[in-house]
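Q: I have 107 residues here and want to know how they pack in 3D. Can you give me a structure?
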Amino acid sequence: MSSTDPKWVKLQKRVCDVFNKCDSKATITIGSGNVKGNGDVISSNFMIECKQRTRKNITIEQNHWNKIVIEAELLDKIPAIVCENESSEIIISLRLNDFRDLHEYSK
């Protein structure tokens, strides 16, 4: 990770690195950041949209959520949005049923 990378690129790389610890197939998508791209990070089970924010509070815009849900479902992946706020706190959001299913699967 280059110190000159924009914050959003650093976030994508960090998310990819974390997911790679449990899924060696996690990768930053080609064309990440493009309007027509398929999420920012993809793994065996997840399609992830990364959002870097310069404010304290994080909100998820409905159109961003809808986009990642559609893209994920087309590839049979779990949609998720990862947001980083101005304090460098990183939060992942996913549907409650997907979280429940992951918990059941891990037993």
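Q: Anything worth noting?
A: The longest helix spans residues 7-20. The mean pLDDT is 89.
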